[in-house]
Amino acid sequence: MNVRVLLSCINVLLIGAGVARADFLPNNFWPNSKFESGTNLDAADGSGTPTGWVRNGSDPTICQVTSNNYVSPTHAIMVNDQDPANYGEWDSYVSLAGLANPGDSINVQYSEMWSVQDGEMRVAVVFLDAGNSAISAGQFVVSGDSPGWAGTIASSTFTKTNQSLVVPIGAVTLNVGIVSGGSEATIGYLVVDDLSVARAPTPELLSGNFWPNPSFESGTNLGQTNGVPTGWNSYNSGSSIITQVTTNNYVSASHALAVVDNDPLNYGSWYFYPPISLAGHANPGDILNLQWFQLYSITNDNMRVTFSFYNAATNDVSDISFQVTGQSPGWQGAVAGSGFTKVNQQVTVPPNATQLLVQLVSGGGADTTGIMMIDDLSVAPPPPPAIPTNNFWPNPTFEAGSNLNQTNGTPTGWVRNGDDPNICQVTTNNYTSPTHALAVIDNETNKYGEWDADLALSSSNAAPGDLIDIQYSALFSVTNGPMRLSVLFFDASSNVLAATDFNVTGQSSGWAGAIAGSTFTLETQQVLVPANSVRMRFALVTGGPELATGVMVIDDLSAVVHVVPPVPPTVLAGNFFPNPTFEEGVALDNPTLGIPAGGWNRGGSSSLIDQVTTNNWTSPTHSLELLDNDTGNYGEWYMFLNLSGLVTNNDAVDIQWFQLYSVTNGSMRLSFAFLDSGNNTLFGVDYNTSSNGTNSGWNGSVAASTFERQFQRLAVPVGTTQLRVNFASGGASSVIGVMLIDDLSVRLSVPYFTAVTPQSGGFDLTWNSMASKNYTVEFTSTLLPTPTWTVLATNIAGGFPTTSYLDTASHGGHQGYYRILQQ
After folding, report:
1. Cβ–Cβ < 8 Å for 752, 770
2. Which SS3 state, helix, strand or coil, does residue 29 take?
3. What is the 3-state secondary structure (H, E, C) of 737-789?
4. How far apart are CA 666 and CA 689, in angstroms?
5. What single DSSP character describes residue 702?
6. If DSSP codes are grouped into helix, strand and coil, which group holds residue 298?
7. Is the distance from CB of 71 to CB of 110 less than 8 angstroms?
8. Which of 57, 348, 494, 657 is the Cys-Cys partner for 88 at CB 3.0 to 4.6 Å?
């Protein structure tokens, strides 16, 4: 751990007294919180009924309303149970539609007093599904006497209680119950007033954040200043330095991290240890976005937030500190009442770094004193690429519309459809562009929801025959799916000409249990505009079957007309391999996040080895790379190409690529395999790197080296439907090094002469060929000015890899020319 001892003088600074809290949570959505609305509330026997509440239990008369004591005038609700053979239960139900989504945290606050014997009573907060079955519950039990109990309800004081719960997937209704059992033998009183429920403030975190416990809401003893957030450790070089968790001020929820330094000779620090692994998040050379909120008042020098990078042996390789001094812009003289300031920074991951540690340190200089607090600390790789400049789809970020900060808001251009339009929501819990995304949240097994948006096609956007590139970010968790994003095209009579479904089921790769905190996956698709199309539609749909449940969220939805880039001479004429130059795709300038178009996927035991590089190439400006420094793992790029309509049985294909490499402990390889309709391998071949470990153009580094050309011909086996391509760093997992390929092209083989050999009585002609074709041999004595070709033989059955023909004809003269025609 990198902590520097800093000496300082002292000015006493105390954390200000806590701000007085309102009796109700901000944004409370619980109706009749004060129990002042209802019927017969002043009945002496407690038989009144607050609006929204119902009596349950084995003896409903235990459920009462009291005016003997309360927090807000002039009634409270209670269970008065003097019967050891029965229990009572007050219940109230509120629909969560438009109030809270699965994955949200909700805060529950109430004031209570109790005196309970022979068991326990409780406030129960229960989540119910669409069939009114309980999914999960928080049971907040009490027993004995409350802290303010003085023998009677009238003489006792209330205790304020706060609870927090996470809304589970499938929840549509929230139930609060006030229950006199535990067991039916329980007797006593439980009185509740000022019940409020609100969605917890959502932490403002970077999209794609991978830093754990960013809001300091997980840990032990967090309601006390000596609490410890999960993952954090404290160090104090002197007894008067305070490293603490504070509830006096915060950005989200209820806690922030603080150092309070009143000691000019010592310092204190919080540090997150062990460091967080960067695997799967960033590699050396990548940029990381940093964000946190800070509040401070510092005398003499500075305090700081420090980001420290460590190597695999947990040795410190780099420290980057963001120092502050004086007072933050929102400082108002004390912690309570002051405002936090948001900080955004970027750092580059240094060479050999594999781990990240963060510190909050009170020193600074030799005489630093004061306080510094942080909250909502997040670390993330750069966001996905921006909306393409030639996008023609309107409102791609869902930032235009009405009432967008509510779940029932409507982005411009979109309409709700389906059995239950309430399934269609706008979310601010997560997004890739500020600050909204489109969501379908379906908790019903017999209904579905559908967002629809239509666009009239014209010369300004797309026309029949155009190929459209579609890009969007998505996250999802789907049960009994699929759910889908669909693209539909209509004719002038509103008939559907084509519909393409991009289905999802299960969980997206970045799903972390809830919408908030999960990371989006960038998706790219292509659709062809059919003839006679006049209108295009996007539909975000929860069915699949109506029994599909879960969530699907999209953002940054764009559509552009596909433009085919120029083909360089290093790509074979007649190539049908998609994206041969690796110049099409998403996030291509990010080595570990970039994905070339055409169907490429990352695989292997460590996908971080699979990269896209701009360090060298054959055609500008990207190539595919395996960068393997891990002797315990291997990386692999792979893809499948549908060959239907491109080749037939016994055809041959020409394959060309350019490669450079430097490999130790074995070989890396580019592999090709022909598969049948059942994905069985009919034939496969590995083209391994050479035994000396480097290609002929290797000059000590990727940037300084030159590529070498590779050319191969392969016969297409009978029954072939697919070509599988694998680019792998093993061999064995122990293989390390680097390998690049570029300009990978595949075409139907074309004939050319491989030999013309004089024989007794003629010339033996040999050419490359394929077994599925017949060939014609022709001759001419001159090529200028206009050659006349004479057929020497036709319908010559081809073979693989070559076919031969002996020309015994007498042509006269001393020169002539042959050509081969593939029939």
Report:
1. no
2. coil
3. EEEEEEEEEEEECCCCEEEEEEECCEEEEEEECCCCCEEEEEEECCCCCCCCC
4. 9
5. T
6. strand
7. no
8. 57
740: tokens are: 């690049």
The H or E element spanning position 197 is strand 187-199
Helix (H, G, I), strand (E, B) or coil at 760: coil
- State the burial class of residue 701 (Cβ atoms within 10 Å of its Cβ: 0-12, 13-18, 19+): exposed
DSSP letter (8 states) at residue 47: -
Among 177, 193, 195, residue whose Cα is nearest residue 60: 177
Closest CA to 195 of 61, 50, 67: 50
State how far Cα 629 lies from the chain centre.
26
**Gap between the Cα atoms of 464 and 457, Å rounded:** 9
DSSP 400-420: SEESTTSTT-EETTEEEEES-
For 349, list phi and psi in degrees, rounded to 5: -65, 120
759-795: per-residue pLDDT in tens? Answer: 888 899 999 999 999 999 999 988 888 899 999 999 9
Q: Could you report the per-residue pLDDT of 537-586, keeping only the tens digit for each?
A: 999 999 888 899 999 999 999 999 988 778 899 999 999 999 999 988 87
Tokens of 325: 């001094």
715-746 pLDDT, tens digit per residue, is 999 999 999 999 999 878 899 999 999 999 99
Amino acid in the structure at residue 164:
S
Interacting residues of 410 by C-beta distance below 8 A, sequence separation 6+: 401, 402, 403, 404, 416, 426
CA distance 592 to 282: 7
CA distance 180 to 170: 28
pTM to 2 decimal places: 0.45
Of 263, 462, 469, which Cα lies nearest the Cα of 385?
Answer: 469
* Cα distance between residue 531 and residue 534, in whole Å: 9
DSSP secondary structure string for all residues of 576-644: -SSSTTS-SEESTTSTTT-EETTT-EEEES-GGGEEEESS--SSTT-EEEEEE--TT--EEEEEEEE-T
Amino acid letter for position 625: E
SS3 state of residue 518: coil
pLDDT tens profile 435-485 = 899 999 998 889 999 999 999 999 999 999 888 999 999 999 999 989 999
| φ/ψ of residue 60, rounded to 5 | -60, -20
pLDDT score of 620 more than 60: yes
Residue 297, pLDDT above cutoff 90: yes
Which residue in this structure is represented by tokens 């006199």?
180
Residues 6+ apart with CB under 8 A from 45: 64
- The predicted-structure confidence for 375-385, as pLDDT tens digits, reads as follows 999 999 876 66
